Amino acid sequence: MGKSAAQLSLFPELPEGARRRRPARVRAFFALWPDEPLREGLARTAALIPPGAARASRVRPERYHLTLSFLGMLEPAQIEAAQRAASQVRAASFRLVLDTVGHIAGPNVVWIGPGARCPPLAALKAELDRELLRYNLPVASSPFLPHITCLRGVREPPDPPPVHLDWPVREFVLVKSVLKPGNSYYKVIARWPLAP
Predict the structure, then answer these.
(1) Is residue 118 predicted with pLDDT exceeding 70?
(2) Which of 57, 60, 89, 137 could form a disulfide with 132 if both were Cys (CB 3.0 to 4.6 A apart)?
(3) Can you tell me the distance from the alpha carbon of 109 to that of 153, in angstroms, rounded to the nearest whole number?
C-alpha cells in the first residue's frame, strides 16, 4: 500500500545515511535582573569581600542575577512554553532588601542576598513554578535560596563587609546563556512586569 501525500509531508524520508537534526537547545533560566545602579552597588560590596584563595574569581557585574527557576537545556518549543507559562503569572512588585553575605560550601561560592524571608518573593517563585509545571517544564525540588553569586572558588566563609541594598523589584525575566569560547554571557529573552 503506497504512502499518502499527508504521510510524506509529515514524515519526509531522509537520504540514506543522513540523520535528523535535533533542534538547537539553549540553557535558560528565570531570574530577577538588577538595574545598573544596583549592579554598581553589588559590585562595590563584592569588591570588599576578601577572596580568601588565590584561585577565587569575582563574577562580572553584568552577570549578576537572582535565579527564580533554572530550566536547563531547552528546545525552541520549550522556550515558547516557558514564555507562555510566565505570561500567566500574576504577582505584585515588591521591595527586596539585600543585607547578607553568605557562602555555599559545595560549589564554593559567596553570595549577596536577603537575610530574612521575603513573602512577595516567595509568592512570585511559587506562582512561577506552578505555571511551569502546568506547561510540563522542569522545576527544581531543592529549597529556594534567593541569592546573587558574586565570587566563585572560595572554600571558607569570608569575613563579610556590611551590606544594605534596596531593590525595588518590578519585573522578572527569562535569560539564556550564550556560550562562546572566551566570551560567554547572559542575554535576556523576554521580560514580564509585576503589578504596581
Answers:
(1) yes
(2) 137
(3) 6
Phi, psi at residue 86, to the nearest 5°?
Answer: -65, -35
Four-CA torsion 138, 140, 146, 147, nearest 10 degrees: -90
CA 119 to CA 94: how far, in whole Å? 9
Chain position carrying cell 530574612:
116
- State which residues form the domain around 61: 24-193
pLDDT at 54: 64
Q: What pLDDT digit, counting tens, does each position of 50-70 carry? A: 887 667 899 999 999 999 999
Q: Evaluate if pTM is beyond 0.70.
A: yes
CATH of residue 114's domain is 3.90.1140.10
Consecutive H or E run containing 58: strand 57-58
